[in-house]
Design a protein that fits this description.
alpha+beta, Aminopeptidase, 7-stranded mixed β-sheet, 28% strand
Length: 172
């Protein structure tokens, strides 16, 4: 049985920070330092929320994602899954929750920014129905070791944007 995500609290900020930094170690080939800090996570929680999946065994966090409603769009980022648990559907479960949250909030679309140097990410999100809609600069030039930018990807999730089988998955 799939574990349901819950909204993270400020008490979860240290665990979220550790999980995100561990999951984003894969980006060390183009970026210096940790992905985030506890204070950045806490600041993000004042604008949006982190959805988290708790470990069934250890009480730690297995996965998390940041979600922020921005008008008719829900932005999500910092999707992080414990590297030892990747490929088991936790990330997909969180994305489905984000999309369902967007529909319930009356939002028309979901948006994510993926760094162009992570070439495996664009095809992954395309398979989930996301399309490239633009690009934005990478915000932290002093942390990068090679030029990069974010690819903006969006997915329509309003009443006309979600396939019936997606809706059925969301309600189970």
């Amino acid at each position: 049985m799939a574990r349901r995500p819950r909204e993270g609290t400020l008490d979860d900020a240290p665990a979220i920070t550790a999980l995100v930094n561990r999951a984003f170690e894969i980006e060390a080939f183009f970026k210096r330092g940790a992905r985030t800090t506890r204070s950045e996570i806490a600041a993000m929680m004042s604008k949006g929320a982190f959805l988290v999946i708790d470990s069934a065994e250890s009480g730690s966090l297995d996965a998390c994602v940041y979600v922020e409603l921005t008008g008719p769009t829900v932005y999500f980022g910092m999707l992080a899954v414990n590297p030892a648990l990747q490929g088991q559907g936790l990330g997909r479960s969180l994305i489905e929750t984000v999309e369902s949250t967007a529909r319930r909030a009356g939002c028309d679309q979901v948006e994510i920014h993926v760094v162009n140097l992570r070439t495996e990410l664009v095809p992954y999100y395309r398979r989930l129905g996301y399309v490239e809609t633009g690009r934005v600069p990478f915000p932290d030039d002093e942390k990068i070791t090679q030029p990069c930018h974010f690819i903006v990807m969006t997915k329509a999730v309003g009443a006309t944007g979600a396939a019936p089988e997606q809706e059925q998955v969301q309600s189970t």
